């Protein structure tokens, strides 16, 4: 497969509940971890793949810390959590700049783990942008979604970005106010966690020589200080 390692140990038969959490992770922070823990609790995830993107289509103008640094920090953050797996699925492939699309990443995981129940995790801010994503209608059909609440976003606004013909005709029988039933998939709103931390804040604090203690996992803080990142 392109772009990195095979995903996980069990390649045949055993079905798992798996989530993909993509992002620039520049750097990974405690907000990402809080979302992951809440998602793991609520959806009983067996595996949660953190997928740092080498070049996200929507952040092409921003200058990013080098991929190996962002991947290293993700790996350090995963070290304390047995179900968390750092993924090279969107790692740069040689010298040629390559844009990765989420639909392709999800399809690859599907192919490799056809029996897994697959979720895609993203923040509410990102979900509102989803109509601008490559093949987003196919993406909405391809797996279930876990949408993390972010300050300032109204959860009911999320429904508006879903094309009406994708919505299930009859509402979900569970009457779960935090679930939007689509014809093929579901969008779950994870309202149990709200974190104000962002990577932007971490980078800004570093530029201003302010402490980032408690905003990133301790090992990640050590790495950022040791490598003098974001100065
Ligand atoms: P930046 O500040 O550089 O834009 P970010 O903090 O949003 O970065 P990303 O790596 O872009 O971090 O985020 C990956 C995913 O995690 C996105 O879907 C984003 O919406 C979500 N996310 C980031 N921070 C939080 C948070 N505090 N709470 C919930 N979701 C978050």
How are the strands ordered across the major sheet? 3-2-1-4-5-7-6
Q: Judging by the overall fold, what is the CATH architecture?
A: 3-Layer(aba) Sandwich
- Uncertain stretches of 5 or more adjacent residues: 1-11
Structural class: alpha/beta
The arrangement of helices and strands along the chain is EHEHEHEHHEEEHH
Q: How far is the N terminus from the C terminus? A: 36 Å
Number of extended strands:
7
Instruction: Tell the overall outline.
Output: globular
Query: Which CATH top level class fits?
Result: Alpha Beta
Helix-strand blueprint:
Blueprint: E1 17-23, H1 30-43, E2 47-52, H2 67-78, E3 84-86, H3 102-112, E4 117-123, H4 124-128, H5 136-142, E5 144-148, E6 179-181, E7 186-190, H6 199-207, H7 218-226
Parallel strand pairs: 1-2, 1-4, 2-3, 4-5, 5-7
Antiparallel strand pairs: 6-7
This protein binds adenosine-5'-triphosphate.
Residues 23-26, 31-32, 35, 122-123, 125-126, 148, 150, 195, 197-200 line the site of adenosine-5'-triphosphate.
What does this entry look like structurally?
The chain is α/β, with parallel strands linked by helices. The protein has one domain (17-197): HUPs (Rossmann fold). It is built from 7 helices and 7 strands. The chain has helices spanning 30-43, 67-78, 102-112, 124-128, 136-142, 199-207, 218-226; strands spanning 17-23, 47-52, 84-86, 117-123, 144-148, 179-181, 186-190. The chain has a 7-stranded mixed β-sheet, sandwiched between helices. Helix 2 (67-78) packs antiparallel against helix 7 (218-226). It is globular, with a radius of gyration of 17 Å. Mean pLDDT is 89; it is low at 1-11. The structure holds adenosine-5'-triphosphate. Adenosine-5'-triphosphate is lined by residues 23-26, 31-32, 35, 122-123, 125-126, 148, 150, 195, 197-200.
């Amino acid at each position: 497969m392109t772009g990195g390692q095979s995903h996980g140990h069990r390649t045949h038969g055993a079905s798992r509940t798996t989530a993909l959490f993509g992002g620039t992770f520049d750097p990974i922070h405690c907000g990402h971890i809080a979302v992951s823990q809440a998602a793991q609790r609520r959806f009983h995830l067996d595996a949660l793949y953190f997928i740092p993107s080498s070049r996200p289509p929507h952040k092409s103008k921003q200058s990013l810390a080098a991929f190996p640094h962002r991947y290293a920090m993700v790996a350090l953050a995963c070290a304390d959590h047995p179900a968390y797996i750092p993924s090279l699925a969107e790692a740069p492939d040689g010298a040629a700049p390559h844009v990765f699309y989420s639909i392709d990443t999800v399809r690859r995981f599907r192919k490799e783990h056809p029996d897994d129940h697959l979720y895609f995790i993203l923040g509410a801010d990102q979900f509102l942008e989803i109509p601008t994503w490559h093949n987003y209608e196919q993406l909405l059909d391809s797996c279930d979604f876990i949408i993390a609440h972010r300050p300032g976003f109204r959860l009911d606004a999320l429904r508006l970005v879903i094309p009406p013909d994708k919505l299930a005709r009859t509402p979900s029988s569970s009457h779960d106010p935090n679930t939007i039933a689509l014809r093929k998939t579901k969008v779950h709103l994870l309202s149990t966690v709200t974190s104000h931390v962002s990577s932007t804040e971490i980078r800004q604090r570093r530029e201003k020589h302010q402490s980032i203690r408690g905003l990133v996992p301790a090992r990640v803080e050590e790495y950022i200080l040791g490598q003098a990142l974001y100065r």
